[in-house]
Structure formats: structure tokens, C-alpha cells
Specification:
- The complex is a heterodimer of chains A (274) and B (269).
- Chain A has 274 residues and is mainly alpha-helical.
- Helix content of chain A is 73%, strand content 3%.
- A two-stranded antiparallel ribbon of chain A has the order 1-2.
- In chain A, strand 1 and strand 2 form a beta hairpin.
- The relative contact order of chain A is 0.08.
- Chain B has 269 residues and is mainly alpha-helical.
- Chain B has two domains: 193 residues, no CATH class; 54 residues, no CATH class.
- The chains are: A mainly alpha (274), B mainly alpha (269).
Chain lengths: 274, 269
């Protein structure tokens, strides 16, 4: 039997099919499952085209539930490509081994990927883009778009290719070391600092109450709140919102309703302003 | 400003292109680019003939969604609908940016219904793909993965967004004209509170021991030092480098303890 090898072009092609189509049929039951099959189409044909039984088994194998963060988590389909290639060449890789890698890694990589991409990079780039865009500078949306593609496409490509190159064991070795922990902790610290800056800039709630004592006019915002700690209101509002979400485990829509009610009462009575 | 039916249709198409998962601009180009009101608003501005005004409204409408995260098949709000139809409404009625943020808000909530509908109906195509898989028909699975769900998605996105833009703009114009005094102030206060929701959701998702201390540091840098966000991001990167180096290189045991405490730690301060 001739050796069936995937060329770099095969692996890259699967990457681009994944990059564009991973979520084309995103749904509550199987999420990215058909996205994975779609991305592997040419690979399945090449590896198992001469063996109808294995061909069908491979399709059924990847029709199973799969969901991860698609860029950094692209390392998983990369690994699985390498495993399928070895299996097609007779290596004793079972269905369980392949499913184990997919289901075992998809959760951790979703956590890592979403923290870095949606949790850290996106708010930083948006803060930058919005501050320009709010002044009517079109560079805001344009630079935002260019940076987002310019950073995430190479990251996704490298993750996919490294997954294919390192295979399951190599990736698990990287996971076992503390490099990933380090990256996530660092990103979380950096992200939190940017979020602090955003709350100071964008939560513009003030307390316009002015108390008149005799001839002295006492503005609560200027002489009390700002004197205590500038940014006290945004800090309290964010911490209270976080407390409702994290400690009270409220749904985000409930929290939004509470904020709206606070706005109606505070704005109506003139206690809060913007 | 009045909006023609054709312009409303194009705005619906922008909403479709930005919706999570549409393949035309890649997944990243949908959720991370056109889905963001900053970009969507600018595109709507181009359609309505004033990209700069669209960009200004889009930037404002984006604020509550700066820290938007969609994970595990959930979408807590729909910045896409708020950014497209919201910008169109704001441009048609000429409101100020804080009020624009608030009138876009119900759209962000209504949009999640479109998300739930598509996530539910798309299950049908998976079941059809299951049958094709039993026959080992790979081409049919790939067809079912792309064509029918995207036709469905196009209808689910373009029809409501186009209708809301075309019919809603006039209604909103009338409504905004009557908004002055206390109701307007309430809208503005709500608009000033809402960014807290996205920021807190984001904080929750990146939460680790000490996260809130970094948060307070960022707040102080703006309020007391007046630094721009990009400078704070760079400083944050530098601080994060030293922090993680100290945490992981000198005390591996402590670092493991910190990592273990990640999930159940409630007391971040």
C-alpha cells in the first residue's frame, strides 16, 4: 500500500476552509461538527478514498459534537489531521483516541482562546478604534479591522500548523508546562487594566446633586465623590454589576434590567446624571 | 433624512454579513469586524451617504458591547442589529450620541431572538447531514453545511433589519422629537450605566486572583493620570510580563496553587 501523506497544501487548504466556514451551520445540537467535516472534505477523500468503510467511519467520527474557540482552538483540528493521516497509513489509532483528543482539548482551548481573543485583544482594539471613531476619524474602524485581521489570522494559522506538526503528545507537553498559564494570567492582567481604563472613560454617570447649606453650595460630585476618589461611581457601578453576575449568578438580561431601573429612578429623581 | 427601500435592504445585507458564522468575510470578519457597531455603523454611513456621521454613531452604539463575548453557542446580546439599524435610526432622526446608544439598546436585545431562531432551525440541516453521512455522501454534507443554512440566515437577517430600518426610522423620528427634559435625561443616564454590563461580563470571564487590582490600576491611570487607552494597554503588557515572570519563574509551587484556585476563587480583592 502506498504511503498516503498530506502535503502542506492539503493542511493549509483545510485551515482556510475552517477559517471561513467553521460556523456556517452553527446550531444548538452539534455546534461546529459539520464545520469540521466541511473543512476536512478533501483530506477525507485523499486519505480514505480507496476504502469505503473507513471513509464512512471517518465522516461519522467527525459528525459528533464539537465546539471550541476557532482560532487558537484551531490547534485541535490540526492535531486531528495528523492523527487521521497516521491512521490512514495503518497506525493503530482508535476512534476513542481521536474523540478523546477532540473532547478533551476543546474545553481548555475554548477557555484560552476566548480569554485571549474576545476577552483581551478585542476590547483593547475596540477601545482604540472607538476613541478615534467617536471623533469622526475613519481611521478608527479601518485600523481596528486591519489590526484584528493582521493579528488573528497569523495566530490562527500558526496554531493550526503547530497542532498538525506537534501532534497530540507535543501539544499536551506544551499544556503541561506553565507557559500557557503564564500567557493567560498575563493576558488577564493586561485585559483587566484596559477594562479599568474603559470603565473610567465610558461609564460617565455622575451625581449632579447640589446641597445648599446656608450660603454654601455643596456639589456632591465635586466636593465629596471626586475628593474621596476620582472615578468612584464607575468603580462602584462596575463592581456591583460584577457582583450581580458572578456572585449572585444573575443572567445578563436581568442585570441589564436592573441597570435600566437604576437609570430610570436615578435619572428621574435627578440623583444621577450623565 | 429619509431612507429608501433599497438603502434599507443594503443595511440588512450589512447585518447579514456581520452575523456570527456567515462565511463571506471569514468567521473573524463576521463576529469580530462587521458585527461590531464601530464598523457596521461606518458601513451604514457609507450606504446613507455620510460615513463619518455613521462612524461617530457606530462608535457610541458600540460602547455597551466593547466587552461582548459569545462563547459556547450563546450570544448575550446582538451588537450587529444595534450597530446597523441603530445607526440608521440615529442618522434619520439626528439624535445626540448618548441617546443613539439607548435607542439602539432594544435592538440589541431583539436581535438575540434571531440568533436563537437560527441556532434552533439549523439543527434540521444537521439531521439531514446525518442521513447523508449514513450514505457516506460527503459532498452532500458540505452542501448542507453551507447553502441551506446561509439562505435561511440571509432571510432571517435581511428581512427584519430591512423592515425595521425602513418603517422604524420614521417612527423613531417622531418619538425622538417629543423626548426632552426628564425622559431624555433618563435615557442618557441609562446610556452612561450600560457599558458597565459588558465590562463586568468581560471581567468575569478573565477573572483570576488579583484581576480586580489591575482593573483599579487601569481606572486610576485614566482618572488621575489622564493616559489614553492605548498607552494603558502597553503599560498593561509590560506589567503583565513582570507579573507572570515573578509569579511563575520564582515560585512554581505558588503558581500552581494560584492556577488551582482559578475556578473557585470568589474573593479577588
Amino acid at each position: 500500500m502506498a504511503e498516503k501523506t498530506l502535503t502542506k497544501q492539503d493542511v493549509t487548504r483545510a485551515f482556510w476552509r475552517w477559517t471561513f466556514f467553521s460556523h456556517a451551520n452553527y446550531n444548538y445540537e452539534r455546534l461546529e461538527a459539520t464545520g469540521l467535516v466541511h473543512s476536512y472534505k478533501h483530506v477525507i477523500k485523499k486519505l480514505y478514498g480507496d476504502d469505503p468503510e473507513e471513509y464512512k467511519a471517518c465522516i461519522l467520527r467527525h459528525m459528533q459534537f464539537f465546539n471550541t474557540e476557532p482560532h487558537i482552538g484551531g490547534v485541535i483540528p490540526g492535531i486531528v489531521l495528523a492523527m487521521e493521516e497516521q491512521r490512514a497509513n495503518g497506525a493503530p489509532i482508535t476512534d476513542e483516541a481521536i474523540n478523546g483528543v477532540k473532547t478533551g482539548l476543546m474545553g481548555p482551548f475554548a477557555g484560552i482562546g476566548d480569554t485571549l481573543w474576545q476577552g483581551t485583544l478585542t476590547p483593547i482594539l475596540l477601545a482604540f478604534g472607538i476613541s478615534l471613531g467617536a471623533q469622526g476619524n475613519l481611521l478608527g474602524p479601518i485600523a481596528y479591522t486591519a489590526l484584528m485581521f493582521g493579528i488573528m489570522f497569523p495566530v490562527a494559522y500558526i496554531c493550526w500548523m503547530q497542532g498538525y506538526k506537534l501532534g497530540a503528545e507535543g501539544v499536551q507537553q506544551v499544556l503541561a508546562g506553565n507557559m500557557l498559564q503564564k500567557i493567560i494570567t498575563g493576558a488577564s492582567a493586561m485585559g483587566a487594566m484596559v477594562l479599568g481604563a474603559l470603565s473610567a472613560q465610558f461609564i460617565t454617570t455622575t451625581c449632579p446633586v447640589v446641597i445648599t447649606i446656608g450660603e454654601m453650595q455643596l456639589s456632591i460630585q465635586d466636593t465629596v465623590l471626586d475628593a474621596l476618589f476620582k472615578g468612584l461611581l464607575p468603580l462602584i457601578i462596575t463592581l456591583a454589576t460584577l457582583w450581580m453576575l458572578k456572585d449572585r449568578k444573575m443572567k445578563s438580561t436581568t442585570v441589564m434590567a436592573i441597570l435600566i431601573i437604576i437609570g430610570i429612578i436615578g435619572g428621574g429623581l435627578g440623583i444621577l446624571g450623565a | 433624512m429619509s431612507i429608501s427601500l433599497f438603502q434599507a435592504f443594503l443595511i440588512g445585507v450589512v447585518y447579514y454579513l456581520g452575523n456570527i458564522g456567515t462565511p463571506w468575510l471569514s468567521l473573524l470578519g463576521s463576529i469580530s469586524v462587521v458585527y461590531k457597531p464601530l464598523v457596521a455603523g461606518t458601513l451604514v454611513g457609507c450606504i446613507l451617504g455620510d460615513p463619518i456621521q455613521g462612524c461617530i454613531y457606530g462608535a457610541a452604539i458600540n460602547l455597551p458591547y466593547v466587552a461582548f463575548i459569545s462563547a459556547g453557542g450563546t450570544a448575550p446580546a446582538d451588537p450587529g442589529l444595534a450597530g446597523t439599524v441603530g445607526t440608521a435610526w440615529a442618522m434619520a432622526s439626528g439624535v445626540d450620541t448618548t441617546a443613539a446608544m439607548t435607542i439602539a439598546l432594544p435592538l440589541g436585545l431583539l436581535g438575540t431572538m434571531i440568533w436563537v431562531t437560527h441556532m434552533t432551525l439549523d439543527v434540521t440541516f444537521v439531521h439531514m447531514a446525518d442521513k447523508a453521512a449514513e450514505e457516506a455522501d460527503l459532498d452532500r454534507i458540505c452542501f448542507l453545511h453551507v447553502v441551506p443554512p446561509q439562505i435561511l440566515m440571509f432571510c432571517l437577517c435581511v428581512i427584519p433589519a430591512c423592515a425595521a430600518t425602513y418603517f422604524g426610522a420614521t417612527a423613531v423620528q417622531g418619538l425622538i422629537g417629543t423626548l426632552t427634559g426628564v425622559p431624555l435625561r433618563i435615557l442618557q443616564v441609562i446610556g452612561s450605566l450600560l457599558p458597565a454590563l459588558g465590562i463586568a461580563m468581560n471581567l468575569r470571564s478573565i477573572s483570576r486572583p488579583g484581576t480586580l487590582l489591575f482593573f483599579v490600576a487601569g481606572l486610576i491611570m485614566v482618572k488621575y493620570l489622564g493616559l489614553p487607552v492605548i498607552a494603558i494597554a502597553a503599560l498593561g503588557g509590560i506589567v503583565a510580563y513582570f507579573y507572570t515572570t515573578l509569579l511563575y519563574n520564582n515560585a512554581p509551587a505558588a503558581a500552581e496553587g494560584a492556577a488551582a484556585a482559578y475556578d473557585d476563587d470568589e474573593e479577588d480583592f
